[in-house]
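Peptidoglycan binding-like domain-containing protein
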Amino acid sequence: MRRRPEPAGPRPGRVRRLVGTRSGQLTVVVTAVALVGAGGWFAGSRMQSPADAAAAHRPPEAGPVTVTVERRSLTASVVAQGSVEFASPRSVTLAGPVGSPGSGSGDAGAGDSVTQRVTKSPAAGVEVKEGDVLMQVSGRPVLVLRGTVPMYRTLGPGASGDDVGQLQRALTRLGFNPGSTSGTYGQSDAAAVSRWYDSEGYRAMEPTVADKQQLGTLEAAVTTAQQALLAARNPGGGSGGSGGTRGPAEPGGGPAEPGGASGESGGGSEDGSGADGDAAELRLKSAQQQLDAANAALSAFQAGYGTKVPAGEVVFLPELPARLDKVSVKTGDNPSGPVATVTSSKVVVRAVVPADDAELLHQGMRARVETTDGTEADGEVVALGDDVPKDAPAGTGKQQGASDGGSGDGSAPVPVQISVPAGTLAEKAAESAKVTIEVGSSEGKVLTVPVAALHTSADGKARVRVVRGGEVVDVPVEAGLSAGGQVEVTPSPGAALNSGDQVVVGR
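Structure:
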């Protein structure tokens, strides 16, 4: 059986399949295009040019930097770095040799010139009281007494002055009353000095062999001058004969043969006139002058003859007891320079402050001292500038230089001395410390702003800038106490400034 040919063109079922296929493809294409477009939009919205990126990172426009106005109490202070030291440092130097001049111990003869040596040196750190032996030189003591007049000469019979009166008062305090404080050294003072030396185990400086020999020589000269004067008054030795007074008179420079001749012919002229009479009168006058001179020399020597206090055997110190801070000599040294440094037993703190800060300080201000280990003590300002002692002990050269410079340069640092209670910080001597000196405080709580918030306008008045309602306005104020970067402000009449306001301190 023959099959009929199929009609040309697609068959209805296939057409349906092809139509379905083309429709799906179109959907896919449209979807893909939509996705690509969305991706492009998304990528485009996220991508920036370098210029746009830089613009996006610019900081916002600057606004004012503000700080809140506060109500608080203010205490202004000056802070400085200093050191803890013992007060009243003073160098000790012997005023002269110990013992007799030119001798090593005072017991040798005048011709025994021996270099003086320290035989017992001072001991650092010990306390010396009035009457104590500071050291020994060539076996002789160097004693300590209280007084403001320095020892500058040997004190002995006939001496007078403030230094003698000072010695007499010291002897009285020690229990060796000389009987007078007139300021003139007499034999009662010599006896008191001898008792004082004996109590310390030493012999006082009594007349030396040379002194005794000199006294004998002067006494002999007076005797000879007296004999010469007698011979001159009685040249004939009696009525017309040669007397025994002529012989002794001759060694003293008395009259010799001419005097005898004058005596024998004395009766030749009733009124004693003539050449012989004139010669006799001259001899008498000369003999009298020689006796007067011999007596004057003896009196002058006797006035200083007796027990003395050699210039090097006493040291006067203004304050006693004193502490031996440093020793400058050792056994065997020649004590020709400073032998020690003494201080008071009181402790002080020395510091230097800038000249501007020094203008805020005065004596009597309270201070707080804190050492490096945290030890604290209350103190008081007792000296400023040139009033601070300049004979600071070794190790304070910085402060000494500041004091010297401060006297001629108004911008140089100024030295300050702080006292602390007795017995305080003694164990901290030579350590550094922080000193805080209170220079003022507000009366209760006051309005305060940072110092940076304060400025001066063209009219010369102080002002602060306050942010109000989004705007910055100037508020006139009066500045007061400043401390710790804060300043007290009081709004001028008619102006308003309150705690909590925001003041501009920068932009």
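The mean pLDDT is 80.
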